[in-house]
């Protein structure tokens, strides 16, 4: 089962996420596409400095924007993070046995 965790700062702004494990092939492909698009979009369309850790063989990615984690805010990154959350929530609605989403303050 794929596990997606979204991390929020004290102002309830998403500053990052972790996606790990595997599920059904179609679900993995969809989650991977959305996740990579989120990372690429933040890289391309914002000036945010981010930290990204991943498993070369797939199955794990951890992405965070330290300035937002520390209470900052970036409108574009926030929009992109929320697009990822929306997309993953749609997948979860269709494939509830293959993905869980934890949207929490850390």
Describe it:
The protein is α+β, with helices and mostly antiparallel strands and 106 residues long. It has one domain: Alpha-Beta Plaits. The chain is built from three helices and five strands. A five-stranded mixed sheet has the order 3-4-2-1-5. β3 and β4 form a beta hairpin. α1 runs antiparallel to α3. 25% of the residues are buried.
Short description:
The protein has a single domain, classed as Cysteine protease Prp (Alpha-Beta Plaits, 2-Layer Sandwich). It has 3 helices and 5 strands, in the order E-E-H-E-E-H-H-E.
**What portion of residues is helical?**
40-55%
Q: Which segments are poorly predicted (pLDDT under 50) over 5 or more consecutive residues?
A: none
Spell out the CATH superfamily: Cysteine protease Prp
CATH topology name, in short, is Alpha-Beta Plaits
Overall pLDDT confidence: 94
Identify the CATH class. Alpha Beta
User: Element order, helices and strands?
Assistant: EEHEEHHE
Task: Give the number of helices.
Answer: 3
Structural class: alpha+beta
User: Which sheet architecture does the biggest sheet show?
Assistant: 5 strands, mixed
Count of β-strands: 5
Give the C-alpha Rg.
13 Å
């Amino acid at each position: 089962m794929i596990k997606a965790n979204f991390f929020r700062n004290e102002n309830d702004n998403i500053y990052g996420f972790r996606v790990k494990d595997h599920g059904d092939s179609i679900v993995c492909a969809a989650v991977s596409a959305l996740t990579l698009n989120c990372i690429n979009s933040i890289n391309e369309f914002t000036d945010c400095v981010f930290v990204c850790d991943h498993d070369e063989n797939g199955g794990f990615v951890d992405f965070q924007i330290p300035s937002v984690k520390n209470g900052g805010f970036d409108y574009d990154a926030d929009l992109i993070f929320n697009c990822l959350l929306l997309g993953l929530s749609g997948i979860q609605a269709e494939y509830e046995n293959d993905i869980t989403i934890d949207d929490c303050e850390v």
